[in-house]
Amino acid sequence: MTSFSVTGGRPLQGTIRVPGDKSISHRALILAALAEGTSVVGGLSDGDDVARTRAAVEAMGATCDGEKITGGRSRLHEPDDVLDMGNSGTGIRLLAGLCAGFPWLTVLTGDGSIRRRPMSRVADPLRAMGAQVDGRDGGRLPPLVVRGGSLRGIDYNLPVPSAQVKSAVLLAGLSAVGETVVRQPVVTRAHTEEMLAACGADLEVSDDGLDVRVRPSALQPFQLDVPGDPSQAAFWVVAACIVPGSEVVVDDVYIGPARTGFLDVLGRMGADVERVGERSIRARYSPHMEGTQVAGGEIVGLIDEIPVLAVAGAVAAGRLVFRDVEELRVKESDRVATIIEGLAAMGATVTYDDGGLAVQGEANLCGGEVHSRQDHRIAMALAVAGLAAEGTTVVDGWDAVATSYPGFERDMETLCAS
Ligand code: S3P
């Protein structure tokens, strides 16, 4: 187990670029594997999660040579071994959807965290399309065993608003007979449908963005420069807001509305944050932040940023309350428990009641020993808290950060150097 020590009080200054967006990176590799020819994809996330998806599509017959990925249905074949998706929920769920479309046996597994995460949400619709999907605990937990092929389209109402589930069903729908419709209760990140449309898939999205229809399609190869990951930018944005004397610009970052709910919440809290042009975010120290209420309908647009927003809430005045955060319990860790534990160890009070998470502000954050519980976003959020805390914070289980942001320490050093 590795640790990372952060000493508080050093302002963050400068301009930074974060790793390529993780959600877009997974999808780029999967769509390039399906596309008939060679796609060119630059700026992929350098984290372990995306490396696992790259290895998985290679195990199915796609070839990756630097930025060039050559795929096509006739090249793809049954993987000859278990696919180990590491810590990646997006990887395992999207791959389950992809593999369901082919007449193969695929076994998908991952680390201890993945093997505790719910898979019925993808297994149920894939079974309804005609795939055989089994797994531990009556088919609910990985390893997942998918025997695919001969799918038929379905009309599916998502029981949980999940872009991963939507994407798994759409990917399976590319290989199904007839039309597949996915209906969402709220709009989730739309990377899959946007990228499928760019590859020429036979696809329609309703005007309100909620319903997506796809029909069997051959995909065209594409060129893509993956923009920076707003969920990673959020760590530096919050750090700049809470450490006196800071000003940070995150350049070349994806700032689509389904991913930047955290900027809206910070804005409501009185933070000095702004979108600059089409691809940058500027954040400055914001001494007068105050908590706000985050409604259930907003959660899907900022779910991954709740750990670091909670840190902002602990420093701000008043209370920051997130409604309807049950989904947090089934992320890389039970984030309700790990946010409460980590921030309590640093002197802040966070409570969970009736599906809502409340962060009491004006905490005097102090250093100490905290644990990531092997969750990358918890590790990085606690490191950000450490920047605003008195003394030194030691984050144990730091190795988890390699799943999404291997260069986090280096970037912190760069920003704090002045
Ligand atoms: C993701 C969707 C979200 C998000 C995850 C990435 C994606 O998960 O939390 O980090 O790339 O589709 P859910 O689909 O489970 O909400």
General description of the model:
- The protein is of the alpha/beta class and 418 residues long.
- Helices cover 32% and strands 24% of the residues.
- It contains 13 helices and 23 strands.
- The strands form six sheets. It has a four-stranded mixed β-sheet. Strands 4-5-3-14 form a four-stranded mixed β-sheet, covered by helices on one side.
- A hairpin with a 3-residue loop joins strand 16 and strand 17 (280-284).
- It is globular, with a radius of gyration of 21 Å.
- The site of shikimate-3-phosphate has 9 residues, from helix 6.
Q: Which tags fit this structure?
A:
single chain, 418 residues, alpha/beta, UDP-n-acetylglucosamine1-carboxyvinyl-transferase, Chain, 2 domains, four-stranded mixed beta sheet, 32% helix, globular, binds shikimate-3-phosphate
Radius of gyration equals 21 Å
| CATH-assigned fold name of the largest domain | UDP-n-acetylglucosamine1-carboxyvinyl-transferase, Chain
Overall average residue pLDDT? 98
State the secondary-structure class.
alpha/beta
- Enumerate the strands of the largest sheet in spatial order, edge to edge or round the barrel: 2-15-17-16
The outline comes out as globular
In the CATH classification, which architecture of the largest domain applies? Answer: Alpha-beta prism
What share of residues is helical? 25-40%
